[in-house]
């Protein structure tokens, strides 16, 4: 009997691409569900991946994408329709009689969080848990090593400063590769992982000074930690091309990080336990990130980064306009993760 076919959503994204590669390397037939045809999907086809083009909120298109599939990796997109899309996917998965789903959620998910997408993640977790007769594994990472921390690598490379809006908060940031490998392992062995919640982390808790010291080693130059107003950090993220839907929630996550939400229960042994491999260190991820052509210290690259650095304070952040345009009421008493008794009770169960 052949291996079951697995659907991967977000297959052209960061974690989805790793999940797809791990499954293909292990000989599983895979189908990628994407929003549109582009150069990335053509490359996937050339690699033997089936492509299903479907809007996440289109019930008929999602149902078609799930035909003939036995398992799925589901990544809710960070946009105002994420709860709608997740409900569509859960409905289609039930009708398709999938045997197992791996759901990518987030460590901060809680019911009264200031961030709409974080409240939606909390609801999506529960929607998927209520699907009868389908095994479920939840993967719940915090801040990744690359984003947001290494989003600030350019100032470290060119100016020797590491922007840091996260105060004294610590984190054991996981690599994207490790997160993808955990999800793929759960898809390949659902009997072992059904009903489990995994929180991949890096091997040790790190402060901003620890990360700056690591970057000094990686880059071969002194890198100084530079406490940075969150607004400036967010303007830089917007300038990097992040959509306003992502940047608007990041402002809340910075406050969560400052309050120590990511150090609760960290580090875990989940990467080793699920994949059989030690988790990648922050240094490993930083070296991989720094190898990108953008960080080759050429005069042209320096001028580009200097220009971007100078215009960052002038980047608009239309948070109020965006959030008011959603026309969704906020909780009566918004609570960051560590202020929520529900969050503390639920997350104390996710232990190494």
Count of discrete structural domains: 2
CATH fold-level assignment of the largest domain:
Rossmann fold
Q: Strands of the largest sheet, in order across it?
A: 3-2-1-4-5-6-8
Strand content: 5-15%
Poorly predicted segments? none
At CATH level 2, the architecture of the largest domain is: 3-Layer(aba) Sandwich
Q: What do these coordinates show?
A:
This protein is an alpha/beta fold. It has 2 domains: 6-140, 3-Layer(aba) Sandwich (Rossmann fold), CATH 3.40.50.720; 149-172 and 203-265 and 282-327, UDP-galactose 4-epimerase, domain 1. Helix content is 45%, strand content 11%. The protein has a 7-stranded parallel β-sheet with strand order 3-2-1-4-5-6-8, sandwiched between helices. Helix 4 links the parallel strand 4 and strand 5 (100-104). Helix 1 packs across helix 7 (176-188), helix 9 crosses helix 13 (282-290) and helix 10 runs antiparallel to helix 11. It starts with 5 loop residues before the first strand and ends in a 5-residue tail after the last helix. InterPro entries: Ergot_Alk_Oxidoreductase, NAD(P)-bd_dom_sf, NmrA-like. Residues 3-235 form the NmrA-like domain. This is NAD-dependent epimerase/dehydratase family protein.
